[in-house]
Amino acid sequence: MTDTITTTTSPDLATMLARRAAETPDTVAYSMVRPTGRPRDDELTYGDLEIAARARAAAMADRDLGGRTAVMLYPSGLEFPRALLGAQLARVRAAPVKVPNRRSGLLRVRAVADDAGATTILTTAAVRDQLVAQFGDAPELSGLSWLCTDTVADEVASAWSPRIIVPDDVAMLQYTSGSTGMPKGVVVSHRNFCANAEDLARRWPVADGGRVVSWLPLFHDMGLLFGIVMPLWSGAPAHLMAPDDFVRRPLGWLEAIAELRGTHTAAPNLAYELCARAAVDARPDLDLSCLRATISGSEPVRWDTVQRFAAAFAPYGLERSSISPGYGLAENTLKVSGSRSTDQPRARWLSAAALADRKVVGVAPDDPDATAVVSCGPADGLTEVTIVDPGSRTRCPDETIGEIWLSGPCVAQGYWQRPVETAETFEATLADGDPALRYLRTGDLGFVSDGELFVAGRLKDVIIRFGRNYYPQDLEQTTETCAPGLQPSCSAAFAVDGGATENLVVVVEVNGRILRDTPAEQLTAAVRATVEARHGIPVAEVVLIRRGTLPRTTSGKVQRRACRAAYLDGTLARIGSGS
């Protein structure tokens, strides 16, 4: 297992920032852009960023925050990298959280603050005023103090006294709820940050004339590493969009790439699906020939989405080889594996029935039993990938499905203040390996073929019926074909106790327009018939719920276990009675 980075002498992002500011102070580090690519805010150079970060570090030191945790509440904007780098300089453990716009979001902020032992919120004056006006004297804000970093003058930078940053010191608590469960703080060290930035830059080189364009939320691991950390590491400018701009008009993202001649971008599968569906409205002069790495990650990559996106934008210069499916998770800081930007994306057509028995059996694409599993690229980065039988804790041979275990310098230190869960997840050992080596158990199922990683699903989400395994993402993908207007990732499939075996429940988000075209009884019947015909598993119940009420993480992933819990306790926002 690798425990040091041998490719660079920089032990932390603060050192890299100082180097960039000294060598290229007038080079743009970050800018905020509108969907068309036109500037919205002033650009931030390395020189200005370094001064601003030192000023904010001085303000944090004045609050005696060194060695403590502070919650970061920032919208996507240039103040985020200023505050993040300031926290790095001041040795403050930053815990980024989404700015809440409703009470449930405020409850999450408080839960993170309590879990992290934080009493200070780093934010902007506008966000503070907004939260105070919206929530007033809500108990969730009690005992928390504000540090509005955008009001800190650059002149304060001269008061900053540098601290020694140790590579294994905690740089950040990346709170994640994953696809299920309560938020947990992933302990990310300075070494983890640098290793993953190095790994990203190795797989998708951006240093030579590259430009990153990203709309991903900066509080999320993918947006943070891809939009902030990796560009600083590589010395490439990052042009950032507000996530809401993408949500309002997905094609604006591609227009910004074309306008700015962006070379690297990343998003979850859903974003590419939305763009493919909107391609009929693309501008005739849209030019995507500049893209070198179009990374798809953060959720299962669907082969039909890859195909549709590639076909829809090939007339606009998109090279199919630029589409790079990848796999990562917060517990590994971010990246695990990814397809090279010079390789064509590929999938294996496998027998769904054999997959149900955790066997890899190739079939023809037109076989009625065929399902496509997308390659997430070679497992040849700084992270070592091992496929393990979770029952025996022994290595699986190639072409055999098991749990994905990881080791290497990108693996985080554990979960903050959760020794039992840390031991279970981060300190696994192989029964047939060196007992001194510790592995991260991802909870994901997959296999390796010809050195490439294929992800099959979540271990704990697998539905078992009469000894056979069914992957919920396959059932959900089939469900979404059952009526016109159903959106990607609009459903959740899970099992409930049926006595002698597990019963399948499928929950589907719908709106009034869909139900006008396909009445509820017809839609539930279509789901039952289609899923059973395609996968050979009967659906015990189809539940229709209002659009926007399916439980999701802050990054948009469906929370199947949270949905199952809501189903069992009767709190789903049902439409009709289902069947």
UniProtKB/TrEMBL annotation:
UniProt key word Lipid metabolism: yes
Pfam families in alphabetical order: AMP-binding, AMP-dom_DIP2-like
An example Gene Ontology biological process: Actinobacterium-type cell wall biogenesis
GO molecular function annotation: adenylyltransferase activity; ligase activity
InterPro entries: AMP-bd_C, AMP-bd_C_sf, AMP-binding_CS, AMP-dep_synth/lig_dom, ANL_N_sf, FAAL/FAAC
Domain AMP-binding enzyme C-terminal: 461-573
Keyword terms: Fatty acid metabolism, Ligase, Lipid metabolism
GO cellular component, one term: plasma membrane
Protein name per Swiss-Prot or TrEMBL: Acyl-CoA synthetase (AMP-forming)/AMP-acid ligase II
